[in-house]
Design goal:
- This is UDP-N-acetylglucosamine 1-carboxyvinyltransferase.
- It is found in: Cytoplasm.
- By secondary structure, the protein is of the alpha+beta class.
- The protein has two domains: 241 residues, Enolpyruvate transferase domain (UDP-n-acetylglucosamine1-carboxyvinyl-transferase, Chain, Alpha-beta prism), CATH 3.65.10.10; 210 residues, UDP-n-acetylglucosamine1-carboxyvinyl-transferase, Chain (Alpha-beta prism), CATH 3.65.10.10.
- The protein is 30% helix and 24% strand.
- Helix 12 links the parallel strand 22 and strand 23.
- Bound molecules: uridine-diphosphate-N-acetylglucosamine and phosphoenolpyruvate (PEP).
- Uridine-diphosphate-N-acetylglucosamine binds next to helix 1, helix 5 and helix 6.
Length: 474
């Protein structure tokens, strides 16, 4: 297992290019299952999740190859396989997106309940409700969704849940409905750009989906989908993460290949915090372009709420929290999509952040500087948040379990290093721990003498000059 050592305090500057969106690439790959012929996808990021999805599709009879120029080619070579095994599907959420296309194309599917980031309750009841409405018979048995359908028929489906719409659920039902007989309407469909990207791909293949990007989709079923070439949209979550990295280091960064219209809410929030953001083509936010992010004034505390699109994405909540943890003043960060997605809070607290949880919110009392510590990544965006915190912190931060990060960010450390960050990937072995966080007796903690120094150092404003008695350990 690898870990990162981040030496904080470097100001990020220069230019960086955003990769293709993970959360588009994965359902797009699944959608290729529903197509005749060869699908070719460009701007597919090189990620562990993409490798896992390729393996899921390989186990379902698809030939998936990445060529030297980075294009991903997907083609069905055997239609008989319909079982997506636990061992692969448990690794990530988007693998559940094979359910809809398998049902539509092969009339049967057996797909393990999916894994993914541990960010709270992640049921798939709405996926199943939508597919059942299209005529599928569905059972859940020993951790697998087992579904069959003689044929799928269009239906009127309400896909809203307690926390709004479902992103992968909308993809699943939308893909299945493109090959159903007759008309399907989906109310409370997710409006996220990744859903629109999948819908645009399906339409290019011959599907007839109207209303993409709105909560109301109308889908006229067609007989077949003919595979095409498609370019994945830029990753708005990576773009937002890099913008926040620039903001946290007082940087001056040019981001290339950004769709500003996909991250309006994040850019507005950063502007409210005091970050300067300029677009190459301000009148055409829907165009891929460069965006400049820089800090020229002290930043201000703000409140922010993660919501379904077009709100601030829940996938950026942790990174914003890192930023606000070191902006003096009170900020409240609320997550309305995953109300328990706060695993990063306790790790940020290890770095000196002052955070109090209250149901779906975290109340931050921003400090002027975080301090390096040994922290543990718990999920993908929490890992990113800890890396950002490390960039801004004083001293060295060790982030363990960064395999989460490798699931969803293409070359993050290379990109940060190119911007001037001091980030090192090393094996998670005791001998690789930096001196400042060196292991003692096999545990990650400061040395005894460092703790003694901290207790007796000159920074205390006390009358008592009493010194602690060194224990036997000392
Ligand atoms: C691979 C992928 O694209 N992952 C993204 C996708 O996850 P994913 O598609 O799993 O997230 P959903 O949009 O489905 O979840 C949103 C909310 O709906 C609830 N819910 C969802 C489905 C369901 O059947 N029943 C139900 O109640 C969830 O518990 C959650 O509270 O959207 C999330 C919300 O933007 C992002 O954080 C993930 O990065
Ligand atoms: C939560 C995420 O991914 P997944 O849905 O694959 O767990 C994410 O991308 O932040």
């Amino acid at each position: 297992m690898d870990m990162f050592i981040v030496r904080g305090g470097e100001r990020l500057s220069g230019s960086v290019t955003v990769s293709g969106a993970k959360n588009s690439a994965l359902p797009l790959m699944a959608a290729a299952l529903a197509c005749e012929g060869e699908t070719t996808l460009s701007s597919i990021p090189n990620l562990v999740d993409v490798t896992t999805q390729s393996r899921v599709l390989g186990s379902l009879g698809m030939d998936v190859q990445r060529d030297e120029s980075g294009l991903l080619h997907l083609k069905t070579v055997d239609e008989s396989a319909c079982i997506a095994d636990y061992d692969l599907v448990r690794r990530m959420r988007a693998s559940v997106c094979v359910l809809g296309p398998l049902l539509a194309k092969r009339r049967m599917a057996c797909v393990s309940l999916p894994g993914g980031c541990n960010i709270g309750d992640r049921p798939i009841d709405l996926h199943l409700k939508g597919l059942a409405a299209l005529g599928a018979q569905i059972r859940v048995d020993r951790g697998y969704v087992i579904a069959r359908a003689d044929r799928l028929r269009g239906a009127n489906i309400f896909l809203g849940g307690a926390f709004g719409s479902t992103v992968t659920g909308t993809c699943n039902v939308m893909i299945a409905a493109t090959l159903a007989e007759g008309t399907t309407t989906i109310e409370s469909a997710a409006c996220e750009p990744e859903v629109v990207d999948v819908g645009n791909f399906l339409n290019a293949c011959g599907a007839r989906i109207e209303g993409l990007g709105t909560p109301f989709l109308k889908i006229e079923g067609v007989e077949r989908l003919q595979a095409v070439e498609h370019e994945v949209i830029p990753d708005r979550i990576e773009a937002a993460t890099l913008m926040i990295a620039a903001a946290m280091t007082g940087g001056d960064v040019q981001l290339n290949e950004v769709r500003p219209d996909h991250i309006t809410a994040v850019m507005e929030k950063l502007r409210e915090i005091g970050v300067t953001i300029q677009l190459e083509y301000p009148q055409q936010p829907e165009r891929r372009q460069s965006v400049w992010v820089k800090v020229t004034q002290p930043l201000k505390s703000v409140d922010c709420i993660a919501l379904p699109y077009p709100g601030i994405p829940t996938d950026v909540q942790a990174q914003l929290m890192s930023l606000l943890a070191c902006v003096p003043g009170i900020s409240i960060v609320t997550d309305k999509v995953f109300p328990d997605r706060f695993m990063h809070a306790s790790e940020l607290a290890r770095m000196g952040a002052k955070i109090r949880r209250e149901s779906a919110s975290a109340i931050l009392n921003g400090v002027s500087r975080l301090s390096g510590a040994c922290v543990m990544a718990s999920d993908l965006r929490a890992s990113a948040a800890l890396v950002l915190a490390g960039l801004a912190a004083e001293g060295e931060t060790v982030i363990r379990r960064i395999y989460h990060l490798d699931r969803g960010y293409e070359c993050l450390e290379e990109k940060l290093i190119a911007l001037g960050a001091n980030v090192q990937r090393v094996k998670d072995e005791p001998e690789n721990m930096p001196e400042s966080l060196k292991l003692t007796d096999g545990e990650e903690r400061p040395t005894y003498s460092e703790l003694l120094d901290a207790l007796t150092g000159p920074h205390w404003n006390l009358n008592s000059s009493e010194k602690p008695t060194p224990s036997a350990e000392g």
